[in-house]
Automatic annotation (TrEMBL):
Protein name per Swiss-Prot or TrEMBL: Uncharacterized protein
Domain of life assignment: Bacteria
């Protein structure tokens, strides 16, 4: 189960990266919102320190991807 949730998160984060690479800021942002909600749910239900550390890495990555999306939106205007 542990590997499954991280595999799913990794795949969904890769989708965000692919949307950014394709300069599709709208879809990247939509996917980022979905993944952020999933991550929040996982953080709320986890009490294992190792899980929390791993999930916090995804939080940092999503924040960085959000900054890329904002920059991408700036280029489009």
């Amino acid at each position: 189960m542990e590997n499954d949730k991280y595999a799913l998160l990794k795949a969904e984060v890769q989708e965000i990266i692919d949307f950014i690479a394709a300069k599709n800021a709208k879809e990247a942002n939509n996917k980022l919102v979905d993944v952020s909600e999933q991550l929040d749910d996982l953080l709320d239900t986890s009490d294992d320190d190792e899980d929390l550390v791993e999930l916090s890495k995804y939080q940092v990555l999503l924040n960085q991807l959000y900054q890329k999306i904002v920059a991408l939106n700036g280029q489009a205007q």
